[in-house]
Amino acid sequence: MCGVSDKAFRMIQELLGDAFEHAKILASLNDAKRIIRKLSNAYKKIDACPNDCMLYQGSDQELSRINVVVKKNRKPQAAKVLRYFPLIPRLQRMFMSSKTSVDMLWHKKGPNLDSFLRHQRDGEAWKVFDRRYTVFSSDPRSVCLALASDGFNPFGNLSSRYSIWPVILIPYNLPPWICMKPSSFLLSMIIPGPKMSGNDIDVYLQPLIDELKQLWGGVETYDASEKKTFKIYAALMWTINNFLGLDHRRFLSPGHRYQQDRVRFDGKVKDRSPPIKLSGGDNLRQLENVHVTLGKVQMVTEKNVYDNMIYTILNDSGKSNDHLKVRKDLQLTRIRHDLWPRVDEKYLTAIFSMLNSQKDVFFKTLKNVVFPDGHSSNISRCVDLHQQKLSGLKSHDNHTLKDYLLPIASRNVLPAPVSVVLADFSTFFRRLCSKSIDPQQLPLLQEHVVLTLCRMEIIFPPSFFTVMVHLTLHLVEEYVRNTAAPEGSIAEGYLSDEILTFCSRYLDNVESKINIPVHVDDRLSKDVTKNVTSMFPLIGKVVGAAAFFNLSPIERLQAHRHIPLGSTIHSRESQWLVCDPNIQARRFKTYASARDNNVVVGGVSYYGRLVDIIELNYSGQFTVALFRCLWVDTTSDDEPYILASEVRLVYYVDDEVDEDWSVVVHAKPRDLFDMGKYNEHCLSLTRDGNLEESLTDAINTGEEAADL
User: Fold this and answer.
1) CA distance 450 to 230
2) Tell me: the pLDDT tens digits for 108-162?
3) Which of 396, 463, 496, 597 has a CA-to-CA distance to 670 between 20 and 30 Å?
4) pLDDT digits (tens, 9 = 90+) for 285-311
5) Helix boundaries (H) for 37-123
6) Can you tell me the distance from the alpha carbon of 170 to that of 472, in angstroms, rounded to the nearest whole number?
7) Are 107 and 119 in contact (CB under 8 A)?
8) Mean of the per-residue pLDDT values for the chain?
9) pTM above the 0.70 mark?
């Protein structure tokens, strides 16, 4: 409950008991837990071998007595305990609840008329799976799952060797604005520490595999939406894994000049063709005679590629991938002579590393950025100008920083070949991670990233290329209250959270984990919609208190002149538009809108700053909201007003080197999903190719700069 400690919760109970003497207030926190646990799907404790060899379950359960430890309270306990959350009852609950059973059918019933990729169901892998397993795909209630896992240290800086591995399941039946919410994640198990299980993680996955086999054959479940039972099927279709660096030049088109370039790469000519894509059956046939021994191989936790990028270009002494050992390795392999260390083990600063004066410009750029409301948190608070460090960034802040601000902040401090290739790399991830992707653009994106990675190989040392698709989990901050037993603390905390999330689905108009109010509510109220006309449909609403003022004759003329006169379709509105608006208008400080349904873009884009929001009143028949803007580089100030439907939200990043310039960044609302203009049930964005540089132009420009 909002991070309240157990002691504080007990004090609240005591306060409520004193305030409401005749109410039945629970006496203690344990009483409250006992009540909500009646709604829970309990987890299982399975003893495990301390060497990760086996789980003591079924006929092997008695073997757990061999490996026990004695705690301080003298009670014998297993050396390792796997906490497993059964999957079947959790999937059954999703259909037994009327609040979620309908959402589980979205992947089949949600339309996609333009074939853009917005959800996993739009991808070719999903479609092939459906064609191959028709019994499974014939019922839209069959559940498609993804699995992800990542290790973390529950003790923070207090211990550097303890590692816990939660395993998360994600039901992809849900629409994209629901399936990636934390409330939709299913915690499958908590693999205990203190060390990583490595290749032996399959030992701990056995209970999950057993349930998946059972679900493949079907399990009886009640459907609350249809009020009858059915057989639920489930399949694990994806796993989110770590990936190591690849030989990028193999993926270039045949005859590309980079394939013959020995000097700027690893000293070898790369004329190998790309690897052949194998089907699952091909992989199984190749592994028929391969005997795998699952030893105690430590899994290498790769840093996120963006962290590699930031710490390397900032030349961070502890986290950079450019240091003396890397330089010696280059000398040992006799490549990249320009990066070799001297005899005294000193080495020159690389072209991709910033000096202190350059870091000062870089951090000042980040420090002075002001974001639109809700776009990101205040990143300036994470910037330490004195120590020249970044700290305390949230996951979405990292996305904003590395995908949008990094190319801007580095453009004046790094040489053109480096800054351009970083911008191209950010552009690729920004487009690939967008909420809608045109599948016809995927081959171009593939060519783009291969070429970009090759150009990065020319600049950065081989140690830079450690790539990890990182799923950030915040289980430490939310659940670890007892550091003496972190696994049990996480399991108990998650169980309570799961129950409260389930209950909160039935509490309408109450703030909860799944019903968090938006920062600025753009939903139209009845008072607002009563004056809406067909000629001026609202895409948002003014927010806050209104201040009445009188329009000057010039302001009245300018504002009224921007209102279109309409046509015979809007004859009623046109009659009132012939008259001027009332002299008295209203002024607001905020206009809330997550929608952008009618973006009007001419042949030229005009940029400016919003300075005022006014509302014109036409004889009490209807009102029209206008933005008053201060335009950049216009020869006349005679057109300051514009309709809300004609603008797109941007923010400006000041250039620390040239104070007369600012960089424009287009901002999109975080919770807005582009589901296509034909989808009436979802918010949509109008696609506009004029507002961003085309991908082809970006590739050509980047390649030219890289060859400077």
Assistant:
1) 47
2) 888 777 778 888 888 888 888 999 999 999 999 999 999 988 777 776 655 557 7
3) 496
4) 766 665 554 434 333 333 356 677 788
5) 88-96, 106-109
6) 14
7) yes
8) 75
9) no
